[in-house]
Design goal:
The protein has 5 helices and 4 strands; from the N terminus they run βββααβααα. By secondary structure, it is mainly α. The protein folds into 2 domains: 67 residues, 3-Layer(aba) Sandwich (D-Maltodextrin-Binding Protein, domain 2), CATH 3.40.190; 34 residues. The strands form 2 sheets. The chain has a two-stranded antiparallel sheet. Strands 3-4 form a two-stranded parallel ribbon. It is elongated, with a radius of gyration of 18 Å. The protein starts with a strand and ends with a helix. The mean pLDDT is 92.
């Protein structure tokens, strides 16, 4: 199996993703989604057993699963990520209406922390 950043090739068994995640929808649109609807741990084990071609999961989560189930001889990460996404912290309309300055300060603070310390925090998170 390979991924060129736009399309997969060599898919015979399909690729899985966590149920309900946007990756699952994207794989379905590309017509490469596995019929096995599984959670990450089970999906990655199925890949190691040769029952799925791949499984899309956050890199840090994938590393933990590979380590926990000793799958490093059976699974490798693609060199190009399937997708990247920014995460957002929503607040309710009621909260924003009542505390707009607090919400704005929170969002600006998170943006500043991400810019200044994002890489360090990501590495720390990945090593938990």
């Amino acid at each position: 199996m390979s991924w060129d950043g736009h399309k997969f090739s060599g898919i015979t068994l399909g690729i899985g993703a966590p149920p309900g995640y946007i990756a699952q929808q994207k794989l379905a649109e590309m017509k490469v989604l596995s019929s096995k609807n599984t959670v990450p741990q089970k999906g990655m084990v199925l890949v190691a057993l040769g029952r799925m071609d791949g499984y899309v999961v956050a890199r840090s989560a994938g590393r933990k699963i590979i380590e926990k189930f000793e799958l490093s001889d059976s699974i490798r990460a693609l060199s190009l990520p399937f997708m990247q996404s920014l995460l957002y912290l929503p607040v309710s309309k009621a909260f924003y209406k009542k505390h707009p300055q607090v919400a704005e300060k929170l969002w600006h603070s998170l943006a500043k922390i991400r810019k200044e310390q994002g890489q360090r925090l990501l590495k720390k998170y990945e090593n938990l």
